[in-house]
Each structure stands twice: as structure tokens, then as C-alpha cells.
Write a structure and sequence with these properties.
The protein is an alpha/beta fold. It has 15 helices and 18 strands.
Length: about 475
């Protein structure tokens, strides 16, 4: 029995606390009420968009006076705002500790039909201001729906560390080059290919600003790619062992640009969230000892999607090149005339060693690491290992998918001369919140594991280097 690939029903948008909207205000009128630093920040923010800002402040602070004096599009009114002052405004902001003043602003905004934001009064506000990462024209907003502005600011700080200041120049180049790309004669698919190439170049050369030569080169590459029999492309991406923070930045970027994502069962939903909302997600998981999607179906689907011009990400747990049957998918795509990009991931053996706080290698005890799978494609225990190498005291062995065949592996290693007290560990769900470690020796680990209910992917690590520290 085989399991058919199924599109995930979660393609529908999940509940959204607020709608993130980017509102052009250049040339429009904005009203701000308030005397203090909070009002000054709202004035500076609105004025930076090119809006005409009317500020109503009976006792303006020094910062507010400085902004009003420094910006031609800010007019300071040394009085309280009245209902007529809201007429014709595109937006209104208030930053006041005075409840009566806040209530008056709310009533005036309602009468004028103007959307109002009142700082620290989310229940009285029509919209909420989030934390902002400013790489204009690239602007990123972060909101917690007013629940925790401090947390939003912390998230903004994390994003700022990932978005260098040079991205402002790349975003400006995208803005400037768009008309030329539209008039270049490239069709829709080729133009989309241009912007994908543009994005890869921006992330690869984050320390510099783009030049016109980059635009010309990217146009030439997109035009040349249009001569291929299809513009679809497939990227093989390693999702890592489970912790979404262990996925590579390059893998995240590939996932964010995918039209279709084919993913395995071991890939958690938190990693799938990196895909854009519009992307189609298809579960093609191969489940050990359970009905699964056949590999032939997966490779055929990859080829069909590439022929349809889709940008496909094949997302595999861990590293796709280690016991992930990547060779079959690569061969099928190349045989159909497609190239394939490969983005490696953190493999489970490394995550398991990290869980133990141990090194897989040692100059004294383990100068070799060997990765093995403990069952064949039919689920049977393999007999064609180099048993002498596996029993070697000077090596560390990482056993993938070794839970069911662990008793047979242990018995055979002992028969081949491995010491009974050789350290051995089983790590379940390495790197995730449900991570669990069962410690033992190659002789007693199977007995310890037999009494445990293992539901997640497991890694067995064997060797003396694992206890060296």
C-alpha cells in the first residue's frame, strides 16, 4: 500500500490578529496630538513619509520643537485640537496621558471619519503601530497586536541584525530598475527569474550596493535562461534536525521563494512557516514501516512541476545528501534535462552529538566518523557492512534509523569484537523541545531502549570519543 502525495489543508491563511498595511502618505495630511516624546516620535515618523503633519501641542517638549523646526512639512499649533482640525486628514495619531484629551480626539476622529491611533490605548485605536525596521524603500513592520510593544521591539532588533543597512540600496535599485525590467521584452516567467537572481545576488553580496552592471548581467542571465526548454527549477534543501533555528539562512531564502514545497514527515510545521503563504505545500513523507509515498512518485512529481515552470523546493529533514535518497531525485531531474541546486543542512548525527555535549571526533580516540543506516530499503537488517570497521575502537559510528534493528546491530558488533563497555547512546528528536537521551553501552543499550516508547526519529551514537570530556 502506498500513500498518495497530499496537499496540506493549512494552505489557507491562519488567524491574523491585525492586517499589516503599508500606507503611502506623501502629500497627505496627518494630525498628531500630544506634547511629549511619544508625540514627537509619531510626528517624525509621519513626516518621514512625506506627509503634511499638523501637530497640536499646548506645551511641546524640546524634541517636538526640534522636529517642527527641522522639517518643512511639520506645522506646530500651540493649542488643543478641535473637531474641525481632523477634517480632511488621512490619519491621526495621539500620544497623551490625559484621558479627556484622548476621549475628545476619539470623538473628533469619528466625526471626521479619520482612522486614529492612540498610543498605549489599543482599545480606543483604529490601528496599531508596530516596531519598524527602516531600510527604505524596504520597510519591515513588527506587531504583537498591542499586547507587548517591548517584545515587538526585541523582535525588531533580531531582524535588524539579519537585514544589513546595504539592503536599502538594493531595495532602491529594485524600485529604480523595475520599469526597465518591465520594458525589457522578457515575459512574466523570465521577469520573475530576473528578480530571483536579483535577490540571490543581494544576499550573496550584502556588503556592497548594486551597480548598473549588475542589472545588465542579470537581464542577460534571465534572457539566456529563457532559451532553456523550461524555466522551472528544483532546489534540494536540508531542513536540519528539527530546531528551526538550525536551518541555514540559504535554505530559508530558498523556501521563501518557492512556488511549491515537497516536504517529508520529519519536517516540522515551524520550518514550513518559512515558505511564503501562497506556496503550495505537498506532504510526500516516506514513513518507516508504514504506508508511504513511493520514491518513484516523488521524482515524477518533481519533474512534472519543473516542466510546468514552477520553482520547487524539495525539503528533507537533516541533510538531504545523507540517507535521504537524494541521488534518485538528482538523477531523475538531470535525466529530464533540469539542473538542481543543493543546499545542505545540519545532519542528525551532529545534532545528536550536540545533545550529548560531546565531540564526534578526537585526535586520541576517534580519527574517523562513519555514518550508517541500520536497515535496507525493505526494512531488513543489512549484513553487508565492513564489520571490522564498525567494531574499530578508533572510530565513532552514527546509526541512522537504527531503533528497530538495534538488538541485531549490538549482537553483531559484540560478535565482531567490540568491547562490551563501548559507550552507546540513543538520542530521540535531537535539537527539539522533546529531545530525549538514553545512555548505555553497546551491550546494554538495546535492553534499555526496549522498555521505552519511542515516537520520534532517533539517532544511535557509538564510540569512546563521546565520553572523552
Amino acid at each position: 500500500m502506498t500513500r498518495k502525495p497530499d496537499e496540506v489543508s493549512s494552505n489557507l491563511m491562519q488567524p491574523l490578529e491585525t492586517l499589516p498595511v503599508f500606507y503611502p502618505l506623501a502629500g497627505k495630511r496627518v494630525v498628531v496630538i500630544g506634547d511629549g516624546e511619544g508625540a514627537a516620535w509619531k510626528v517624525d515618523l509621519a513626516a518621514a513619509t512625506g506627509a503634511q503633519v499638523d501637530v497640536f501641542a499646548c506645551d511641546p517638549c524640546e524634541k517636538l520643537l526640534e522636529i517642527a523646526n527641522g522639517r518643512d512639512n511639520v506645522q506646530l499649533h500651540a493649542r488643543a485640537a478641535g473637531p474641525a482640525d481632523f477634517e480632511g486628514a488621512a490619519l491621526a495619531f495621539g500620544a497623551t496621558f490625559d484621558d479627556a484629551e484622548a476621549d475628545a480626539a476619539r470623538q473628533a476622529a469619528d466625526a471626521a471619519g479619520v482612522a486614529l491611533n492612540l498610543a498605549d490605548r489599543p482599545a480606543m485605536s483604529d490601528f496599531i503601530m508596530g516596531a519598524i525596521v527602516n531600510r527604505s524603500p524596504l520597510v519591515i513592520g513588527v506587531s504583537t497586536g498591542g499586547a507587548s510593544p517591548v517584545f515587538a521591539q526585541a523582535v525588531r532588533g533580531r531582524i535588524e541584525s539579519l537585514v544589513p543597512a546595504t539592503f536599502a540600496a538594493w531595495a532602491k535599485a529594485a524600485q529604480d530598475w523595475r520599469p526597465q525590467v518591465l520594458s525589457s521584452g522578457l515575459d512574466f516567467l523570465a521577469r520573475r527569474d530576473f528578480w530571483r537572481r536579483f535577490t540571490r545576488l543581494a544576499f550573496n553580496d550584502i556588503e556592497r550596493a548594486p551597480a548598473e552592471a549588475d542589472r545588465d548581467a542579470l537581464l542577460a542571465e534571465a534572457r539566456a535562461a529563457g532559451d532553456d526548454m523550461a524555466r522551472g527549477r528544483v532546489t534540494l534543501v536540508g531542513a536540519g534536525p528539527g530546531d528551526p533555528e538550525l536551518m541555514t539562512l540559504k535554505g530559508m531564502r530558498a523556501l521563501a521563494g518557492a512556488d511549491v514545497v515537497l516536504f517529508d514527515d520529519l519536517v516540522p510545521a515551524s520550518i514550513l512557516d518559512f515558505a511564503r503563504r501562497e506556496a503550495t505545500r505537498i506532504n510526500v513523507g516516506k514513513r518507516g514501516y508504514a504506508p508511504s509515498v513511493r520514491q518513484e512518485e516523488i521524482t515524477a512529481l518533481l519533474v512534472d512541476l519543473a516542466r510546468a515552470g514552477k520553482n520547487v523546493v524539495r525539503l528533507k529533514g537533516g541533510d538531504p545528501l545523507i540517507f535521504g535518497r537524494a541521488n534518485e531525485e538528482i538523477a531523475a531531474l538531470r535525466g529530464a534535462g533540469f539542473s538542481i541546486e543543493i543546499i545542505p543542512g545540519v545532519t542528525a548525527a551532529c545534532a545528536g552529538a550536540a545533545a550529548l555535549g560531546a565531540s564526534l571526533t578526537s585526535r586520541e580516540t576517534a580519527r574517523r566518523v562513519q555514518f550508517i543506516t541500520a536497515h535496507t530499503k525493505d526494512g531488513e537488517f543489512p549484513e553487508d557492512f565492513d564489520w571490522g570497521a564498525l567494531a574499530d575502537r578508533r572510530a565513532t559510528t552514527a546509526v541512522y534509523m537504527g531503533n528497530r534493528t538495534l538488538p541485531a546491530l549490538s549482537r553483531r558488533l559484540l560478535e565482531e569484537g567490540m568491547a562490551h563497555d563501548t559507550p552507546a547512546f540513543l538520542v530521540e528528536r535531537a535539537s527539539t523541545p522533546d529531545e530525549r537521551i538514553i545512555r548505555g553501552t553497546i551491550a546494554d543499550l538495546p535492553g534499555k531502549v526496549a522498555h521505552e516508547n519511542l515516537v520520534g526519529p532517533v539517532m544511535v551514537l557509538i564510540g569512546w570519543a563521546l565520553i572523552e570530556n
